[in-house]
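User: Teach me something about this protein's shape.
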Amino acid sequence: MNLQKARVVLALVLFSAFYAQAQTCIQPTTEFTITGQVAQEVKFSFTDLQKMPEMEIGSLDISNHAGEKRGTASDMKGVLVKAVLKDLKFKNETPRQLSEFYLTFVASDGYKAVFSWNEIFNSPTGDHLYLVTEKAEKKIGEMDD
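Assistant: First, the predicted structure itself:
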């Protein structure tokens, strides 16, 4: 997956609530939880994310399903998803079983995006999949979406 496609995937995952908010009032979250086939459930708050290495993402055009530009997310920073997940212990008997795992990311508006463990940890996609911590000079706790 090239960088532009990876950024589009990122945009769809992280900003789906942005346009839905025009139709309904979606309550932003202050934390997220990792559950499922993990040794122990893990909660992350905004404060936890702010302690992790933050990377410059830049700006990204947001497109709809037809590829039409719907807006721009500017001056973004974020934490790599695989950095958040790196110490997570999965319920697997062998490393090979990780290839059967998939991760479902669920936004507060119910939007879902699914990635395989291999996409995140063994492909270029994982090098461009972020949890956005800043956008347009607003920190994560100040964002409306």
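Now, about its shape. The first strand starts at residue 31 and ends at 34. The two ends are 27 Å apart (CA to CA). If you'd like, I can walk through any region in more detail.
User: That's plenty for now, thanks!
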